[in-house]
Every structure is written in structure tokens, then in C-alpha cells.
Amino acid sequence: MRAVDKAGRRLAPHLAPRLLAAPLACLLYGEATVITATIAPAIPGDVVQRAASPATLALAVAAASAALLWRTALPLGTLALESAALVAATVAGLDSYAVAPFLVAAFAAGRHAPFPRSLAGLAIACAAMAVSALVAADGSGPAALVAEIAARELTAGSAFLLGGSLRGAHDAREARARAMAAEARRDQAERQARMAASLHDSVGQRLTAIVTLCEGLGGGTGDERVDAAVAAINAEARAGLAQTRETVRELAGLVADAEERTGGGPIEAGWGPRGQTPDDDGGGSPG
């Protein structure tokens, strides 16, 4: 059973290959760095950061990478968690292990968080980078500190804005697809309107003329067999006219539905070209 929030959105991540790619990459990078720092003590500390407990660091890297599985379902929550992990890692002097998951989370916030809530993600990312720079400053001068903060903010902002640009491109493609679908529905409605007009022109008026002639001839020939035949023709013509009228109404209903879905203007779909309504069957004696 899948966990969902109050809006019905899935909270448990769907483990698609594309969703697993970034967490696996962060995990492999982090664990490889931990192993390298452990088995190669000759590497300087300013190149590879070392922890007092490599096993604990490896577990922390795994946890930070696993949290990225929720970056599409809960982008802002994931970014907040990775931001906290970045600050904590900076305090411990191990921020290089938390930067990659943090940047992936910042990208996901720009890509998946709805606007304008996504702006909160940008604020979280910038705040985390600023705090991390201040913690890592360790007595650096003002110029060096400003440069470090600017570099980190630029990195976080670039990751976020890249995700936002991809979201914008995706939304634009979806909008074009919806517009094309609406245009296709409207084209279909127009074809149905033309069919209704064709039914009126080719069938409806001819049947109306037959009914009118039969009404004029009814009972006036003096021959019972002819009168019966005229009455039968009249009945069949009226039945055909009723069926034609019902077909036109159904087509008009489909056209109205298409107008409501597409937001387009009215489409002439009834008996309008000749000024006759669907309920007017032209019956009665011509008098």
C-alpha cells in the first residue's frame, strides 16, 4: 500500500531507474572517498577529509544519499534535510561528503517544487551555503569570507535555477500538448457541425418537403389505396425526420461539449443555415 498525503500525492518514492541514479552516484562517490581516506593515509587532509570513525561517516553518507529518493515527492523537505546535513558536516569538518547530495536536492527543489513555493527552496539552499561558509571560515579575513560565501551561493543558486529551467521547459511542452489536443477536439467539433448542417441540407429539408406534400394530398385523391399510400409515405417521412432531428441534436451536444472543453466560440451545429430549428418538422397543411 502506497503512502499518500492529504492531497492524494504519493509519499513513498517510486523506485524508477532515473530516480535511483543520483542517490547511487552520491553514495558511490561518498563511500569511495571514505575508503580512499582510510586506506591511503598519505593523502593530505586538505585533499581528502578524514573522520575519527570511518564507519560512522560511511553510514551518514548512505543516509544522506538515501534521503534523495524522496526528492521528487518531497523536494523542499529533502532539501531542508540535506541542508541540515551540510551544516552538521561542516561543523565536523566533513562538508565535502555532504555537498553532492545537497546540490542534487537543490536541483530537485527547483525542478519539482511548485512555484512560488520553490522560492522557499532557493532561500533554504542559500541560507545553508551561507551558514556552511561561516562555520568553515575558521578566522579567515572578510575578503576571503565574502568570496567563499559568494562562490557557495553561486553554486547552490546555479543548481536550483538549472532545475527550474528544466521545469519551465517541461511545463511549456505540456502547455503546447494541451493546446494541440484542444485544437484537435475543436476541429472534430467543427467536422461534426458540418455533418449536422449536411444532414439538414441533404435529408432534413427533403423529408420536410415530402411531409408537406403528403399533408396536402392526404384524403384528397378520392382513391383509398392512393390515400393509404400517401399516409404511409407521410408516416415514414415523419419517422425519418424525427431520427434526423435526433441525430442533429446529438451532434450539437457533442459540439457544445467540445466548446466547453476548449473554451472556443460557438459552432453552428443545428438547422441554422436555413432558419429552421430542430423542433420544426414542417408538418401541417400548407393551407
Biggest sheet overview: none
Please identify the structural class as seen in this structure. mainly alpha
End-to-end C-alpha gap: 75 Å
Q: Which term fits the overall shape?
A: rod-shaped
Helix content range: over 70%
Low-confidence stretches: 266-287
Summed up, the helix count is: 7
Element string (H = helix, E = strand): HHHHHHH
Average pLDDT, rounded to a whole number, is 79
Number of domains: 2
Strand tally is 0
| CA-atom Rg in angstroms | 37 Å
Strand content: under 5%
Task: List its salient traits.
287 residues; mainly alpha; disordered C terminus; rod-shaped; single chain; 2 domains
Helices, strands, pairings?
Elements: H1 17-39, H2 54-67, H3 75-91, H4 96-112, H5 118-137, H6 142-217, H7 224-262
